[in-house]
Design goal:
By secondary structure, the chain is of the alpha+beta class. It has 4 helices and 8 strands. It is 48% helix and 24% strand.
Amino acid sequence: MNIGVIILIVFLTCWLVVTVYELRNIHSFNLKFLDIGVTILRKEINPRFINWKGFDGIYEEKEGKFVFLPDLKIGYFVTIFRFYRRYGLIGGSYNIFPLTIFGSFAEIEGRLIIKYKVSYRLAFLVGFICILWFCIPILTMNFSSIIASIIGTALTCLITYLAYVFKKMKMKLLTDELKNLLNVKE
């Protein structure tokens, strides 16, 4: 067996084990894992009123799960892990790679601050793919591989940007659910 194939199999196996371990801890609201991640969006809301009273346990809505620490006026959220989502009688969408967005929200100086995060594991993967797109043509010094590298890098950036645009809609839905739970008046 080729050494490159063995390295790839070992890398993918480690990646899968770390992914399952991390997702399990994130979805069970392990605070150590919810504080680690790349912040992809930070949103501030200037409310007139926020109701932090009466929360205990985990609240599950259509798009996410929320947990509140009302005494500290902070909380955490995780998107629901699903491969298929139905929007109505006609609409629905498949998600080959369901991306878990997680984060925190807190009331600080009268403002509700929401931080949306993705795993460092995902940022590492996108960076690793981009590095591979640059390293392979340097090692081969072939003109066609340089062209393939440019196209591959552009496609990786485009796919990352499109995923961000679509997930931004999901983050808006999470914000709306959070506002409804906290009875936010703007």
